[in-house]
Task: inverse folding
């Protein structure tokens, strides 16, 4: 999976298969023509900014469901960390484990901090055709993410 820092609206989303917090394999290809996919790349479980961002999505979860969207949080933490995060904050969505940060790199969600590669907070919406419909760094407002999810 090649690294890309140049993903733009309309590009085909890099395919991936990652385990979730319960060990289930999640393949992006399984959602093609079925669901819009929202990927939230975030640096760490249980950290203040990440908790705030993911809890915000949790709090408007029904709006994502009405847009026929499935949401995944993505970072490199292990299953135990992700499971504890999901349980503590009652997330209605799965957290995906990105060992080696390869998927994060493919989506341009990596930055270098000295010699360490860290996940850069990034939100990506992938439409049902498998194309990038939205790409933003940081913590965009949920309303902006929801507006970017294609209808239908």
Result:
């Amino acid at each position: 999976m090649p690294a890309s820092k140049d993903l733009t609206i309309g590009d085909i989303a890099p395919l991936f298969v990652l385990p979730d917090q319960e060990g289930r394999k999640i393949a992006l290809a399984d959602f093609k023509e079925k669901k819009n996919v929202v990927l939230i790349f975030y640096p760490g479980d249980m950290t203040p900014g990440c908790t705030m961002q993911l809890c915000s999505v949790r709090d408007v979860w029904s709006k994502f469901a009405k847009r026929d969207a499935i949401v995944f949080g993505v970072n490199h933490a292990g299953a135990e960390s992700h499971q504890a995060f999901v349980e503590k904050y009652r997330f209605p969505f799965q957290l995906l484990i990105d060992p080696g940060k390869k998927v994060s790199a493919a989506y341009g969600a990596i930055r270098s901090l000295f010699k360490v590669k860290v996940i850069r907070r990034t939100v990506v919406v992938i439409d049902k055709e498998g194309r990038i419909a939205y790409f933003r760094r940081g913590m965009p407002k949920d309303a902006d993410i929801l507006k970017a999810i294609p209808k239908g």
User: Anything to note?
Assistant: The mean pLDDT is 93.
